[in-house]
């Protein structure tokens, strides 16, 4: 893999037969390349500590989620890996940049595929005696098909360099035939080609024109400079009474004028590149997919919208997407607003700054964000995402995620309540909401077995323990547990959760003032009365209370 290593990088390959117990895996930051048994690269990832990250793929302890959809896709990846190669870097920033470059080059099967990449294209000057100018695109393996040649780009679809490939061929008299014919074609007679096929132009003369084209494609020269040179040539030809040559140059300049105007417009557009973009993401963890929308805003006006989807496999994440996407666009905005902060935010910012040469800041917008206008735009992005994927009712859950600072949107929420009547009748209830709606198959009722009297706090511990202690229930663990009560009930529930060895977010909702208790905060938080997040918590709490009271009344009726 030395073809992509730099003096600051080293590469080592570790076969899977030695991999599990091998100390060959570097402890350094860098990039890992997973290969199948045919040697094809199927996944590329980066890590601050390569050994720590990669070993997790091959150990049961490495599972970081209880979600079946995400786990299944990652297991599918691991099952195909027969070899892993590592490229170490000096730091995490270099690892981000190298990972992005390698993904674009090899486009592995399990990495994020930027479906919007058709907006970008490449141009190729072939390595032939008389080179041709072709449009080239990468295939799924990251390779360019067709004849060998030098690649230029990527160019944005709509830019002059893409739209005017035909014009560039005419300007520089680049042949279009696949093979040199024995007789000149129509392009010669309409003066779009100098016919090297009949030796009407020498190889050196032809290559001189190609060099001028190369300078424009590579950015070493501008169309304006080329135009000025042609204007001087036209004046010289006219002064020497070479009127036919002068007219030919004049016609070329007329063709060129359209290209020059478009390039000027493109330069202005690039100079005034978007100062801010909004990136919204939602996940369907059950299916192992993520959906994104990016809104581009320029001078207070929304100029563009792009939609992406990717699979939640391996290390594919919002951070990986941002690094890959913004390393592929012609301009990186000053501010990137998101609805959740990516992992390694500081490293991503530093990586993007290294690419674009200006400061880049990633800012998370929550319901309490100070700028209402920007908050409204992000809500617009999320509304569009939910509408597009049939989950309009997830907006309050997204708000709840932001307010409680959860890692993921709480798709599955369980709520526990104690219903007692004096010191005789005490029962517990559990209600479950999935995507903001009651899911009756997740409801549970409990007769209190180990606690006597009116000890609601101890009873909470009992019903939480019983709810998740059986193996049959561990397949459907919630993303969030809500306890009806205050700080004491929350501590009791957390104690039960920890004894079971579970890692589930848990809060309590005290009814009197509707205060939310979150460990380890000393003071409860109060959500606005109009908050969708609060209404979700109230709904599931009231449903747990109704369900438990119904059971209590039923038991007393049969006493």
Please describe what this structure looks like.
The chain is of the alpha+beta class and 559 residues long. The chain folds into 4 domains: 2-111, GIY-YIG endonuclease; 116-271, no CATH class; 276-390, 2-Layer Sandwich (Nucleotidyltransferase, domain 5); 412-557, UvrC, RNAse H endonuclease domain (Nucleotidyltransferase, domain 5). It is built from 17 helices and 20 strands. The strands form 4 sheets. Strands 13, 14, 15, 16, 17, 18, 19 and 20 form an 8-stranded mixed β-sheet that branches. Strands 10-9-8-11-12 form a 5-stranded mixed β-sheet. The termini are far apart.
Can you give me a brief rundown of this structure?
The chain has 17 helices and 20 strands. It is of the alpha+beta class and 559 residues long. It is elongated and about 115 Å long.
- Total beta strand runs: 20
Q: Are there runs of 5+ residues with pLDDT below 50, and where?
A: 1-9, 12-18, 60-66, 156-163, 258-273
Helix run count: 17
Radius of gyration: 32 Å
Average pLDDT reading = 79
Properties at a glance:
559 residues, alpha+beta, GIY-YIG endonuclease, Nucleotidyltransferase, domain 5, 4 domains, 8-stranded mixed beta sheet, 5-stranded mixed beta sheet, 17 helices, 20 strands, 22% strand, elongated, disordered N terminus
Topology:
Elements: E1 10-15, H1 16-19, E2 30-35, E3 41-47, H2 50-57, H3 68-79, E4 83-88, H4 92-106, E5 120-126, E6 133-136, E7 149-156, H5 160-163, H6 165-171, H7 186-189, H8 203-217, H9 223-239, H10 243-271, E8 276-284, E9 289-298, E10 301-311, H11 318-326, E11 335-338, H12 345-356, E12 361-364, H13 372-388, H14 395-404, E13 412-421, E14 425-434, E15 437-438, E16 444-447, H15 456-469, E17 480-484, H16 487-499, E18 505-510, E19 515-518, E20 525-526, H17 532-557
Parallel strand pairs: 8-11, 11-12, 13-17, 17-18
Antiparallel strand pairs: 1-4, 2-3, 2-4, 5-6, 5-7, 8-9, 9-10, 13-14, 14-15, 14-16, 18-19, 19-20
